[in-house]
User: What shape does this take?
Amino acid sequence: VALGAQVSLVGDPGKRPPLRAEAVLHPATRKVALLGFGTVGRAVADILCREPHLRLTHVFNRNVERKRVSWVPDRVQWTDNYQDVLQSDADLVIELMGGLEPAHQCIRQALQSGKSVVTANKHVMAKYGPELLDLARQHGQQLEYGASVGGAVPILAALRYGLAGDCLVRACGILNGTCNYILSNMEANATTLPAALAEAQRLGYAESNPCDDVNGLDAACKLSIVTRLGLHAELNAFEVPRQSIANILPEDFRYARQIGCTIRQISLAELQSNSLRSAVGPALIPLQSPLAACMDNQNAIILTGERSGDTVLAGRGAGGHPTAVAVVSDILAIAAKGHSMPAVSSVRKYPSADLYCAHYFRICHRGVDFSRTLMNLIEAHGVRMRKWLQHPDSTNQLAACALEACSAGVANLVATAMEKLDGISQKPLCWPILG
Ligand code: HSE
Assistant: This one.
């Protein structure tokens, strides 16, 4: 299926077979309670209520009365006290509250009280993943978090099982559906960033605080999880160099085209020379890259292994139904296996290093032709200019250029020096061009 293809999500539940044969399901995992009834919680409940072998027992949400829906069976207990869920006889708790607290404490308590947990919470898993997985092991329970990265795209399953026989050295992808929705719509339909963000919120893709999407924190948390599981390297989400997509203009897409590229929010972690390079933010990527074909709420990732080379995974990365599929798949995995945690390989801490790649600069200037001055300044930093980028119908005071490869640190020095030139009103934007 082409990356842009859409398929119908809604079938007739009465005519569909159950997701798994009853015999496969572990009897102790049938009673399932839900913490959080937002976009994803509703979509998970929708699947569970059609599934005879999984029994929804509780729904917790703050101000639960405004959340009640008639299609959930009467036997389900609605509550705004999560202790009702944690102290219940549910075998498995699905945490979809989002945010760090109280979600983190709820997961801890659930594991301590002998319940397995499925979560879509990337903040909690990025920050507390190792300690929670240890806790689950100590209590003989399972903690699954496939929905925390990539929505319906089984990125974590690929890292844990499919590619476990290789040593992965690089993960490079689009891990935030909201930013991808914004950028692909700015490019294809000339939508403005605020309008595209508002639509992404309406469609249930964005975080409750959409700043976390736009400024890259959401993607950095996902990158941290991917890096730990796939590259066996520690990466603190809050220390990943990040840039916001908020400054991208329609002109940037036109400049990018001149060098055969488009722009996406890219998350990158790479092991090289015994150090770890990471970044989240706008990047120029070649039009022929699988990442450039990623539209709307899709996510995609290229995983590079020493022996397997590049493996590409892509699909719907945000929204209620795609994320609910990942949640229910985790429930089924727990149900089928019973309670047994596979061993987790050790994770190393590497020194961090700057990205080393070509860079795109966009400069806002007043009137005069700056090309000679800028060229001299760039060369004075030991960097070579690859191309001046001009848009023929550009009447505003923007200029852009592509530089040959240099470290992100040097590129930043160039940008700082440019800012000091007369006629340049703000620090130029500087984004990586990924090959
Ligand atoms: N806000 C997130 C995104 C939701 O847009 O990707 C899925 O994690």
In short: Residues 1-11 have pLDDT under 50 and may be disordered. The longest helix spans residues 320-337. Residues 151, 176-178, 205-207, 213, 218, 317-318 surround L-homoserine (CB under 6 Å).
